Amino acid sequence: MSNKATGEPLKGGAEQDALTGWRRFLSWRAGERKAAKTSFWRRVRRKPIEMGEDDE
To answer: For residues 19 and 40, is the Cβ–Cβ distance under 8 A?
Structure first.
């Protein structure tokens, strides 16, 4: 499964639950969803940087 906006694959169940419609059906503790979202978006932001180093 991948994120519709970026096409980046979701890794792990926490990311899939936090970034898809399942977030409405689950109970989240304080900061739990934010941690999953932060790890996903950090990976998306760093991916172009890693790709740029390989091109040089």
So the answer is: yes
